[in-house]
Amino acid sequence: GKNIKVVATATAGTTVHTAVAGTSDMDEVWLYACNTDSADRKLTIEYGGATSPDELTEVTITAEAGWVLVCPGLLLQNGLIVKAFAAAANVVNINGFVNRITA
After folding, report:
1. Nearest to 63 by CA among 42, 90, 44
2. Which residues of 6-24 are buried (b: 16+ CB within 10 A; e: fewer)?
3. Which of 16, 25, 26, 46 has the smallest CB count inside 10 Å?
4. How many whole angstroms from its chain centre is CA 6?
5. Which of 85, 91, 34, 90 is nearest to 62 (CA)?
6. Averaged pLDDT, 46-66
7. What local confidence, expressed as pLDDT, does residue 65 receive?
8. Which residues pair with residue 47 across a beta bridge?
9. What does DSSP assign to residue 102?
10. Is 99 exposed, middle or buried (0-12, 13-18, 19+ CB in 10 A)?
11. pLDDT, tens digit, 9 for 90 and up, residues 1-27
12. CA distances from 33 to 28, 43, 67, 70 (A)
């Protein structure tokens, strides 16, 4: 559906998705980011936690570049959470979809 505005500028980030509970099913997570600002902005994705570098992905989203793939179908389960924070509040939007893979 709708864009998720990244409000957070530090950990813990804005919640983007909560994975399926348990360990038999999995979520395949596809996320895209769009920077509506006139300056490039660094976006950090906290994928299932906030431990650096194991669970963090950092990408610079170019100003007004359109949608940029930031999570290419990575798998997640066990109720883990995907969060995001950016160098500036309210200028980066995230959208995407999740394929739930059932056992």
Report:
1. 42
2. bebeeeebbebbebbeeee
3. 25
4. 9
5. 34
6. 93
7. 87
8. 82
9. P
10. exposed
11. 799 999 999 999 999 999 999 999 999
12. 17, 9, 5, 7
Tokens of 78: 């066990």
Q: Which of 5-14, 24-33, 50-59, 82-91 has the lowest mean pLDDT?
A: 50-59
pLDDT value at position 64?
87
The 8-class DSSP code of residue 3 comes to -
Give the span between the Cα atoms of 99 and 75, in whole angstroms.
9
Q: List the structure tokens of 62.
A: 């170019």
Classify strands 4-5 and 41-47 as parallel, antiparallel or unpaired: unpaired
SS3 assignment, position 72: strand
Instruction: Label residue 39 exposed, middle or buried (CB < 10 Å: 0-12, 13-18, 19+).
Output: exposed
Cα Rg of the chain (Å, integer): 13
pTM of the model: 0.93
CA distances from 34 to 6, 46, 51, 56, 78 (A): 10, 17, 24, 19, 28
